[in-house]
Every structure is written in structure tokens, then in C-alpha cells.
Amino acid sequence: MTTVRYFAGAAEAAGCSSEEVTVETVEELMAHLSQRGDLSTVLGKCAVLVDGVRGDDPTMRVAPTSTVDILPPFAGG
């Protein structure tokens, strides 16, 4: 199963810091995660990294051994 890790506000919205899911593409992952109320409200603002590579392409493959990071925007300076 793919490990999904949530950071900052995404973790708060997900109610956990990580979970295991079974998906094959970034598009499938986002559809799966969008079904969760609070999480769906922050997903559109988050960056998605699949094994450290930005997952902007919805057809990008997600392997069962992949780690996906869901990163909301960070303020800084």
C-alpha cells in the first residue's frame, strides 16, 4: 500500500499524520482523498510529492511502495 504523509494544516484536516491507501495514479489519489470533508477543503492548495517528485501530472503513476507527501503552503521569511 502507498503511504500518504500529511503536513501542517493538511494533517490537521486529515486527522492523522499518515495513512496507507491503494491507488494507481495521482488523479485516483486526489479523488480518494477529496471524499474526506475537511481534507477536501485544503487539497487544492497543497503540493503533492510522489517519492520526492512533484505530482502535477494527474496520470503520474503511484506505486504501492511510494511515499506521497501532501504539503500545504508554508509561510516564511
Order of helices and strands: EHEHHEEE
Structural class assignment: alpha+beta
The helix content is 25-40%
Sequence stretches where pLDDT stays below 50 over 5 or more residues? none
Indicate the mean pLDDT. 94
Percent strand: 25-35%
Distance between the termini: 37 Å
Instruction: Provide the gyration radius in Å.
Output: 11 Å
Number of strands: 5
**Oligomerization status of the protein chains:** single chain
Biggest β-sheet description? 5 strands, mixed
Describe this structure in words.
With 77 residues, this protein is of the alpha+beta class. 29% of the residues lie in helices and 26% in strands. The chain is globular, with a radius of gyration of 11 Å.
How is the topology of this model organized?
Layout: E1 2-6, H1 9-14, E2 18-21, H2 26-34, H3 37-43, E3 47-50, E4 53-54, E5 67-71
Parallel strand pairs: 1-5
Antiparallel strand pairs: 1-2, 3-4, 3-5
Summarize the model shown.
The relative contact order is 0.29.
Keywords:
5-stranded mixed sheet; alpha+beta; 3 helices; single chain; 77 residues; globular
